[in-house]
Amino acid sequence: MEIDQASLYVPDNTAPETKPCDCSTGSLPATESRNLIVCIDGTSNKFGTKNTNVVELYSHILKKINDNQLTYYDSGIGTFARPSWRSFSYLRQIVNNKIDLAIAWNLEKVILGAYRWISNHYRPGDKIFLFGFSRGAYQVRVLAGMIHAVGLILPGNEAQIPFAFELYSAYNSNIKLAENFKKTFSQESVRIHFLGAWDTVSSVGVLRSKTVPLVVGFCEHICIFRHALALDECRVKFLPEYIHEGASHTPDEILDATPRAEHCTANIKEVWFAGTHADMDNTDLQSGDIPLLWMRNEAIQAGLRLKPTNIQWKQEYLEEPPRESLVGLWWLLEYLPLRRLSFDNAKDTTYRLHAGQSRKIVEGQKIHASVIFRPGYRPKAAYPGYPFADWPHQLDLNEPASHQRLKALGESESHWETDLFDLWPVGLLFHESAPPQEHIEHLIERVAFLSSFGSSVIFFS
């Protein structure tokens, strides 16, 4: 039996209105506008037999000439190609790699390489897409902040790029100088069209990276911001750097804790998924496909052209328990006075012991609906004011109270990311070769959960 997919589309009429994209169309006709896509991987991540979500997404990008998409990929901090023979330069490279893992001294090098590439290829009307995982996510956010602070340098001025980064790093102490540099050497009105981040962290080595401006708590320079976060990560060296309260505010508004709605970028989503930091990476567990599928769909809606894929969040993936990341020597770091994020409006960092605390979910962020279908799952992250203990272990449509529970979930729609669902479960219910009985109930649960909300969008690629 074939399904009329068009008949399964339910418009999202109740979603809040978002501001239109502020990317300049420039002088190019729409048919000539290109997508410039930068992908930066996480620490120690590079192409291999098991690839990260960054590599997977990069592999899906349509790259032929008539696709009008230019791409750039940089492997993670601490990666290097091994030479065919051992030499002094090889040993020096190993030492450099270890130091890089500890203090990220190549953080700036990776950012400037991507900045230089965009500067050489950008023309007015192009749309810039940035993707990153872990510290790579932090780097693309720094890259976005740099473009906002000093503009996108004009061709012929490459020698000024290191100085541009220096001005950006000191932006808060001398905004006027950065603005004058932008007017003199750069294209001024360049915005980031889409930034997709998987579990942003700035410090995963021994030391915390230097704090740079326009990364945490500020997002006015990005039209569309999407951030996948891990519910079950507890390590002090993997604290997430998310947008303050899931919205964009100026630095002054963050300090006085009185953000004004008119300064919000509006098109921001920070969504929590089951799993630890590594599960957002997707190199080992198939459950990482869920945040990958979500990011794909969000990017496609923003205009990124990707190849079709058969990525699906299946029952067997949902049954995999999140891995435990806080083990062994990681516990030692929890009881050392390491400089870390404080998640306090008044100051950025603290030396208080972390002691394995859970992550904190803040107002404005959402939880992906896939977590509801994980048998017996309880997230480690704390959600102030929301009773995680009341989550059902697994929705059972044969239980009399199930409809009341579905109704209660629907009434708390603001907490859930429910606007994008793939059609895979619906199609299987009507397929000639029916799925096993134990999966049928699960598929019905997902369809029932979707229909419990006032409106949703079913999306398929």
From TrEMBL:
Upper classification of the organism: Eukaryota, Fungi, Dikarya, Basidiomycota, Agaricomycotina
InterPro entries xrefs: AB_hydrolase_fold, Tle1-like_cat
Species of origin: Piloderma croceum (strain F 1598)
SUPFAM superfamilies from the UniProt entry: alpha/beta-Hydrolases
Domain T6SS Phospholipase effector Tle1-like catalytic: from-to ranges: 34-297
UniProt-recorded name of the protein: T6SS Phospholipase effector Tle1-like catalytic domain-containing protein
Family matches, as Pfam families: T6SS_Tle1-like_cat
PANTHER family reported in the protein's UniProt record: PTHR33840, TLE1 PHOSPHOLIPASE DOMAIN-CONTAINING PROTEIN
